[in-house]
Design goal:
The chain is about 55% helix and about 10% strand. By secondary structure, it is mainly alpha-helical. It has a 3-stranded antiparallel sheet. Helix 7 (about 180-190) packs across helix 10 (about 260-275) and helix 9 packs across helix 13 (about 310-335).
Length: about 325
């Protein structure tokens, strides 16, 4: 396995292309070449020409390291405002992503951008629906979207679940309108098409298993949603976009305005918010489902003081989690 080894001498970092080889019970590391201290001078294409055999299996890992660290070094040189919710290191990583997104991804030709976004969309749909119990895997979803091939032994609602998600994401792609109850209902209606006839704001009380905080009583759902959206419009420029999307997601899920489809609607809205501020979308991975559900309950103490209350310490674990998903999904799906 090939990788980039980093050695710090004083204030400088020096990079080496290294390969690890197993010999019996031991793993031996061998340096292939010194790469210097300037990441901008290290080109994956040049390494591939000279060490194609050695780096073939690790090509994407090496490219991810080079790109993410190069833009991180650039981000560290930027003047950045202090944020009450993110650490300096977290902000630098977000800025690195946004630098890459703005200067590399958005400058691509339309066909290349479309291919990357299509791949992202398939993965988003699979992960978001899997969190809710959908059993269609990535390979099956790719065939469904690309060849219209319905996987065997899967429920029709699972197929609609994926297709509806794709339809909604494409519907919102170029929209710039503000978030209203009408828009949220429209998103929800499209997501639940062919799956659940219970559309519109719920008119019955619910108790969510494993959630200590009680969702809005039926008679107050629409009023709570209206109050929350007014708060959002008033405060949306006071928070970092990723913090804003995180706060929105938590409070929306706790209102729980629909009988079904709240999580899927909420994750769509996270990316709608990020896009409205010029940030790339994120995927909450199904591999972290338990952690996601756990951290979504962490800020409930703030809600006990009132729907619009925000205590920074209550939201820390959720913010850290969403930040990690943002970072991971970006370098996984927007690296080219």
């Amino acid at each position: 396995m090939a990788y980039i080894h980093v050695k710090r001498i004083g204030d400088k970092k020096y990079y080496t292309l290294r390969i690890s080889v197993r010999k019996g019970d031991k793993v031996i590391a061998k340096d292939l070449c010194n790469l210097g201290s300037d990441l901008s001078e290290i080109k994956i294409e040049n390494l591939e020409k000279k060490y194609k055999k050695e780096i073939r299996k690790s090509y994407r890992t090496i490219k991810k390291f080079l790109d993410s660290n190069y833009y991180l070094e650039k981000a560290k040189k930027l003047k950045q405002k202090k944020d009450d919710y993110f650490t300096k290191e977290q902000l630098e990583k977000i800025n690195a992503i946004n630098l890459h997104y703005q200067s590399k991804f958005l400058k691509l030709d339309e066909l290349s951008k479309e291919e990357i976004l299509d791949n992202f969309l398939v993965n988003f749909a699979v992960n978001s629906t899997s969190i809710e119990g959908n059993t269609i895997n990535l390979k099956q979803a790719q065939k469904l979207f690309q060849e219209d091939l319905v996987p065997k032994d899967k429920k029709l609602r699972e197929v609609y679940d994926l297709k509806n998600t794709k339809k909604v994401v494409n519907f919102l792609k170029d929209k710039k309108e503000k978030i209203t109850i009408k828009l949220i209902e429209e998103i929800h209606d499209m997501l639940l098409e062919g799956i659940d006839k219970r559309k519109g704001i719920r008119t019955h009380d619910i108790k969510i298993l494993g959630q200590a905080f009680k969702s809005s009583p039926a008679r107050y759902v629409k009023a709570d949603l209206g109050l929350f959206l007014k708060w959002y419009e008033k405060n949306k420029n006071k928070f970092h976009p990723l913090i804003l999307a995180t706060l929105f997601h938590h409070k929306f899920e706790k209102i729980h305005p629909f009988s079904d489809g709240n999580g899927r609607t909420g994750r769509i809205l996270i990316n709608y918010i990020l896009n409205s501020f010029g940030y790339p979308p994120l995927i909450i991975s199904m591999n972290f489902r338990k952690e996601y559900l756990d951290v979504m309950n962490e800020p409930d103490n703030s809600l006990k003081k009132g729907l619009l209350q925000i205590d920074k310490k209550d939201y820390k674990k959720l913010i850290d989690f969403i930040h990690s998903q943002f970072e991971m999904s970006y370098w996984d799906f927007f690296l080219f």
